[in-house]
């Protein structure tokens, strides 16, 4: 840009003609009085370009740039009037870019923090006693991990709450019969027979309390339960000990496979078997039930009407048919289902020839 002008000045023996001035003005370069040259030392040195026959130095003062040109034939000081325009454009472009970056950053931060705001609202609802909510978030960042862990905690709290409700209602239901019998026995004349019956009532109450503890542990805990091989007949015998039948209740056990063993948690599986026997007797038309042990099944058979709903419906807590309202609290098969689940077993049902047959494949 400067070299053609310098050549033209050289060709005119160092004289700055009007043509040279016009050329410089077209470049927005203003020629300053040479007397001002000594003041260059007060400017900020930007850069220096030295060549064999001339030296160019660029200085800055305020918003303007100044160009010092030294050649063997001339010493020239120019003011660049483009500098403030370029600076303004650069400043505007910079501000625009910064604004765009800040706006994008704001949107990004708001988007990232939005799940945190939702999580805050759900924590507030949890504090108000509401457990029915979903806090899962797809993602691998810290907020997603926090929300997913919080969701797991809510599910565990909900499960714990449900187990407590079931536990309390089961207590009310199961304790009602032995307490009623105990009150009745206290009104009878003292005798050895009545004393034995009273003792049996207390043993039944103790067994129920142990059973309630096992049920509560089963529903509210996530731990693995200890399992060992046991004879099926021993499990059924223990389940019968847990029962407290009415005087007309009767259970027949047919052991068609005497050496059959299964790997289970003895206490919990006995509770499941006990509930199945109890249901079989309670809902039979003759208060009788048959427990049959085969090579691959444990069957619980009674004579009665076919279930009105699919078996899975009875796995829901507190579900019962209208005809069962006075006999059941709707927890028996729910408890059975949960216990069989942790053993990776399943309850099946068929009705044929007037017989209800519940069975566990082993």
Structure description:
The protein is an alpha+beta fold. It has 3 domains: 3-81, no CATH class; 112-223; 224-362, 2-Layer Sandwich (Heat Shock Protein 90), CATH 3.30.565.10. Helix content is 49%, strand content 19%. It contains 8 helices and 12 strands. The chain has helices at residues 3-11, 18-26, 83-127, 142-186, 192-220, 232-242, 266-282, 332-342; strands at 29-31, 44-50, 55-61, 64-70, 75-80, 228-231, 250-255, 261-264, 288-293, 297-303, 347-352, 355-361. Strands 1-5-4-3-2 form a 5-stranded antiparallel β-sheet. A 5-stranded mixed β-sheet has the order 7-9-10-12-11. Strands 6-8 form a two-stranded antiparallel ribbon. A hairpin with a 2-residue loop joins strand 3 (55-61) and strand 4 (64-70). Helix 3 packs parallel to helix 4 (142-186), helix 6 (232-242) packs across helix 7 (266-282) and helix 7 (266-282) packs antiparallel against helix 8 (332-342). The mean pLDDT is 76.
Proportion in β-strands: 15-25%
Count of the domains: 3
CATH architecture of the largest domain: 2-Layer Sandwich
Number of helices: 8
Residue share in helix: 40-55%
- The top-level CATH class of the largest domain is Alpha Beta
Radius of gyration: 47 Å
Number of strands: 12
* Biggest sheet overview: 5 strands, antiparallel
Low-pLDDT runs: none
Strand arrangement, major sheet: 1-5-4-3-2
List the helices and strands in order.
HHEEEEEHHHEHEEHEEHEE
The CATH topology name of the largest domain reads Heat Shock Protein 90
What is the structural class? alpha+beta
Any idea what the CATH superfamily of the largest domain is called? Histidine kinase-like ATPase, C-terminal domain
Task: Identify the overall geometry.
Answer: rod-shaped
């Amino acid at each position: 840009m400067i070299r053609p002008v310098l050549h033209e000045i050289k060709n005119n023996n160092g004289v700055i003609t009007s043509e040279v001035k016009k050329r410089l003005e077209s470049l927005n370069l203003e020629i300053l009085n040479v007397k001002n040259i000594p003041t260059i030392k007060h400017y900020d040195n930007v850069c220096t370009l030295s060549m064999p026959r001339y030296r160019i130095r660029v200085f800055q003062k305020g918003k303007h740039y100044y160009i010092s040109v030294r050649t063997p034939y001339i010493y020239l000081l120019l003011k660049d009037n483009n500098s403030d325009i370029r600076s303004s454009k650069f400043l505007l472009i910079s501000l625009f870019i910064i604004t765009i970056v800040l706006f994008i950053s704001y949107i990004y931060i708001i988007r990232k923090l939005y799940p945190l705001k939702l999580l805050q609202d759900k924590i507030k609802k949890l504090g108000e006693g509401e457990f029915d909510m979903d806090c899962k978030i797809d993602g691998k960042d810290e907020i997603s991990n926090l929300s997913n862990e919080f969701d797991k905690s809510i599910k565990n709290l909900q499960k714990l709450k449900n187990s407590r409700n079931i536990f309390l209602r089961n207590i009310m239901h199961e304790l009602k019969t032995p307490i009623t019998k105990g009150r009745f026995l206290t009104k009878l004349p003292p005798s050895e027979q009545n004393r034995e019956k009273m003792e049996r009532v207390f043993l039944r109450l103790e067994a129920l309390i142990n059973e309630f503890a096992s049920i509560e542990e089963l529903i509210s805990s996530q731990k693995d339960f200890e399992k060992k091989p046991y004879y099926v007949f021993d499990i059924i015998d223990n389940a019968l000990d847990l029962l407290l039948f009415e005087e007309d209740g009767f259970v027949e056990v047919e052991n068609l496979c005497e050496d059959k063993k299964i790997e289970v948690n003895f206490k919990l599986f006995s509770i499941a078997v006990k509930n199945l026997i109890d249901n079989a007797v309670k809902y039979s038309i003759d208060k009788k039930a048959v427990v049959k042990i085969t090579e691959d099944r444990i069957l619980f058979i009674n004579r009665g009407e076919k279930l009105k709903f699919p078996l899975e419906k009875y796995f829901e807590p507190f579900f019962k048919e209208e005809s069962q309202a006075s006999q059941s609290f709707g927890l028996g098969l729910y408890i059975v289902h949960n216990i069989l689940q942790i053993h990776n077993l399943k309850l099946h049902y068929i009705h044929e020839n007037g017989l209800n047959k519940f069975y566990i494949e082993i």
